[in-house]
Fold this sequence. Notes:
By secondary structure, the chain is mainly alpha-helical. The chain has helices spanning 15-38, 44-63, 67-71, 78-89, 95-108, 115-140, 149-198, 203-214, 219-234, 238-248, 252-267, 271-331; strands at 9-10, 13-14. It has a two-stranded antiparallel ribbon with strand order 1-2. The protein is extended, with a radius of gyration of 30 Å.
Amino acid sequence: MIGTPPGPTLLGVDVLAVGSILAGVAALAAMMAVYAAVTVRDPMVRRVKTLNARREELKAGIVTATAKKRQSLVRKTETTDRMKDALTGMKVLQDSQVKQIQQKLAQAGYRNKEWAVAVIFARMVLPIVLGVIAVILVYWSNTFPEWSSFKRFMAFAAAIIAGYKAPDLFLKNKITKRSQAMRKGLPDALDLLVICAEAGLTVDAAFARVAKELGRAYPELGDEFMLASIELSFLTERRMAFENLAYRVDLDSIRGVVTTMIQTERYGTPLASSLRVLSAEFRNERMMRAEEKAARLPAIMTVPLILFILPVLFIVILGPAACAIGDTFANRPGGG
């Protein structure tokens, strides 16, 4: 039986096999790109649905007369109720802790306050689950036989710490990303608020107009402004709507805007001039952050320059000269 001749190789790697794999990956990427282009979803649909639910909730909260019916408005699920009962039975559920996690959930963009119980439950259960998995992998199944007892204990401890910190790290990451996205669009939003205020729109109408105009460019900021507009329309005190906005957003600039709005409502100061000053201040702050990043760039680029760029540069420059010197010594009479 005659074997098939091997294909061309480069550094011991079959070129045809690698080319086939890369072609398959490129074809899969092209199919995914076509699918993503065909199935484009409007990001406003889900947010509009959520805001409409909030509007109906505020309407029902104002119309409802008794406190018992108001309690029925709180969205609960059987799963969270069971978690809450279990945590209450173990006496590990504290009101201050629940309120703190509820604020973090709101800052991360999660409206359902009942998920705070799930976060506390996950913080208690995940260390146990990951610790059991680590014990099974490290000690019972002996997956890493070369590890010493100290390394095994450190792996077990790392699994427990990771399970305890995972919910908090997840929420912190979501809050940071959402706050950065809103920080970018805040100066533009304030400029539009100034234009709407000078055009004679009320505060709630101005917030709704800004949310509509900036909803696609900055969806997170548009979501918060639209929710603030809804609360301004339905809550009995406008101050509560502004305080809720500062409660849901983890930004000092938003707190400054909220303070300005509250003072404007209380003392009757011109809204347009105050917002114009805030907008200019935020733009200068954004420019200062950009200049700070640009100033740090040379120091950050020093390590990659030394480790990756300079060695390659030396090889390219000195390599031909070294090869020529080696050939000269090799061809010299009496050498090698």
